[in-house]
Design brief:
The complex is a heterodimer of chains A (188) and B (329). Chain A has 188 residues and is an alpha/beta fold. Chain A has one domain (13-184): Rossmann fold (3-Layer(aba) Sandwich), CATH 3.40.50. Chain A has four helices and eight strands; from the N terminus they run βαβαββαβββαβ. In chain A, strand 4, helix 3 (118-130) and strand 5 form a beta-alpha-beta unit. Chain A is globular, with a radius of gyration of 17 Å. Chain B has two domains: 12-138 and 303-317, Rossmann fold (3-Layer(aba) Sandwich), CATH 3.40.50; 140-301, Rossmann fold, CATH 3.40.50. A five-stranded parallel sheet of chain B has the order 7-6-5-8-9. In chain B, strands 2-1-3-4 form a four-stranded parallel sheet, sandwiched between helices. The relative contact order of chain B is 0.17. Helices cover 33% and strands 14% of the residues of chain B. The radius of gyration of chain B is 20 Å and the shape is globular. The chains are: A alpha/beta (188), B alpha/beta (329). Chains A and B meet through helix 3 of A and helix 1 and helix 11 of B.
Chain lengths: 188, 329
């Protein structure tokens, strides 16, 4: 076997465009209402960075569907990671618990990509230090497989079969000035 | 010999603007921990932090202890009184003992300037060293918590910097009192300047350092002239042991010329805040009514001390390698 030639930078292909993302989030919002029989007692917590705008978008859709206000916040999981000692200390992101709090509510964690599951494990630890929710659910825009922990999502925008070596990048207008999900191989 | 070097926090002159802001920004996020129902994060589980205090300082020690415990580190308090040190053990032997016990970080308070530097660079042990005050040299975490408090209270008066980060640009801070012997003043002069503030040190001639040419600040002998132009005034503690050294004519005269009285505080701009590193001599360097007035942010300084020390511990110990400090030993 010869070495795999370096792929060109444009080897990434788009797997979801802006309207796909919007439809996926609309469906997730409907599933949330259906599963929880309404929006009372819900709180959405986005995982920085891209989980936060996704949580806001889902909340906006929930208020259209159910005509109710769902509190949105963010939860930084850096201090709860299990791989902290493998990399230099990182900057922290913002944790913002809505004024309604999380005690007795159904917390829906929102992330862009579900991969090993380690981020969600850390997020669940972080949530339990903030209070005692009635339940924790998980919404993710993309589930790319390769779980390393017994964790699954309750709401998935798109199941995306991937190779371990591939990378999934979610771009959102709030951060990246466009809505797109691309799959490919990062340049080494 | 160690091949990989550990980073330390020995002096605020080791911190560039980026590193200082990283500590303040991290502290800002960690400040929320004190509002959480469970004031603890698992980040430093299994790490050992030794508080090595050769000088009494209950306030600084418990602040570091609270910070380390909120990050789940194990804390060992080692105070010189009643220990092997009072039996004549050298700093080196103490260091070797701590190394053998597996200390990951040593927080050191020492009456000799330079002791933390010696501990960090003598190759006696393989731990991060944090200077918690050495002689008349430096007290970097005090300066960091002061900078944090300034940023917290004076946000509206800070000029936006070119690259978009929020430092202390445009602020004018007076540091008043025994500047000559003050490690708090030294650490603050450098850090506040790094963050873009203008600093004026105010002291009687006997307590003004002779060689401040390389200090990035101005000097004045008159508190009354400086006060109307400041955003914050930092009152330094008068050390009673200096009273007999010919530095002060008398406590009464010092208080009259350099004490922050109600009348003097009234000459400050409305938004200006009053700070003190504690413990205060009420009635000497600061009048009680000023210390308890709405201008006073002294209690906030104490609270912020825990957050800032958590940030320093996290950035030094939290990752595979330190995110700050003078890495090259």
């Amino acid at each position: 076997m010869t070495a795999v030639p370096a792929r060109p930078a444009d080897s990434f292909r788009e797997v979801l465009d802006a309207s796909d993302i919007s439809r996926a989030l609309t469906r997730i919002a409907h599933e949330i209402v259906e599963r929880n029989k309404g929006c009372d007692h819900l709180v959405l917590l986005g995982i920085p960075s891209r989980g936060v705008p996704l949580a806001r978008r889902i909340a906006a859709k929930l208020s259209e569907i159910d005509n109710s206000h769902v509190p949105v916040g963010s939860i930084d999981i850096t201090m709860y990671r299990d791989d902290l000692r493998l990399k230099p200390a990182r900057a922290l992101a913002h944790t913002e618990v809505p004024p309604e709090g999380i005690d007795g509510r159904v917390v829906i964690l929102v992330d862009d990509v579900l991969f090993s599951g380690r981020t969600i494990r850390a997020a669940m630890d972080a949530v339990s230090d903030l209070g005692r929710p009635q339940a924790i659910q998980l919404a993710t825009l993309v589930d790319r497989g390769h779980r390393e922990l017994p964790i699954r999502a309750d709401y998935v925008g798109k199941n995306l079969p991937t190779a371990q070596s591939e990378a999934v990048h979610v771009k959102l207008t709030e951060i990246d000035e466009q809505d797109s999900v691309v799959l490919g191989v990062d340049a080494q | 010999m160690n091949t990989h070097m550990k980073a330390h926090l020995l002096s605020t002159t080791d911190l560039d603007r980026e590193a200082a802001l990283q500590i303040l920004d991290t502290a800002e996020e960690l400040a929320r921990v004190s509002d959480m129902p469970i004031k603890k994060m698992p980040t430093l589980r299994g790490r050992t932090v030794v508080n090595l205090f050769f000088e009494d300082s209950t306030r600084t020690r418990i602040s570091f202890e609270a910070a380390a415990k909120r990050l789940s580190a194990d804390v060992i308090n080692f105070s010189a009184k009643g220990s092997s040190v009072s039996k004549g053990e050298s700093l080196k032997d103490t260091a070797l003992t701590l190394a053998a016990m597996g200390a990951d970080a040593v927080v050191i308070r020492h009456s000799m300037s330079g002791a933390p530097h010696r501990l960090a660079h003598a190759d006696w042990m393989d731990a991060h060293v944090i200077n918690a005050g050495d002689g008349t040299h430096e007290h970097p975490t005090q300066a960091l918590l002061d900078a944090f408090t300034l940023r917290q209270h004076l946000g509206d008066h800070i000029t936006a910097s070119a690259e978009g980060s929020t430092g202390l640009d445009g602020l004018h801070v007076a540091i008043v009192g025994d500047v000559l012997h003050s490690r708090v003043a030294r650490s603050n002069v450098h850090l506040l300047n790094t963050l873009g503030a203008k600093v004026t040190v105010v002291a009687p001639p006997t307590l003004m350092p002779l060689h401040t040419d390389n200090w990035p600040c101005e000097g004045s002998y008159s508190l009354d002239e400086v006060l109307p132009n400041v955003d914050a005034v930092m009152m330094l503690r008068v050390q009673h042991e200096r009273m007999d050294g010919g530095f002060f004519p008398s406590a009464r005269e010092y208080s009259q010329r350099y004490g922050l009285t109600v009348q003097r505080a009234a000459t400050m701009p409305d938004h200006a805040i009053v700070m003190h590193p504690g413990p205060m001599n009420r009635g000497l360097e600061i009048e009680s009514r000023v210390a308890d007035s709405p201008r006073s942010v002294i209690v906030d300084q104490v609270r912020n001390g825990v957050s800032v020390r958590m940030a320093v511990l996290y950035l030094l110990l939290g990752g595979s390698e330190s995110a700050l400090g003078d890495g090259a030993a």
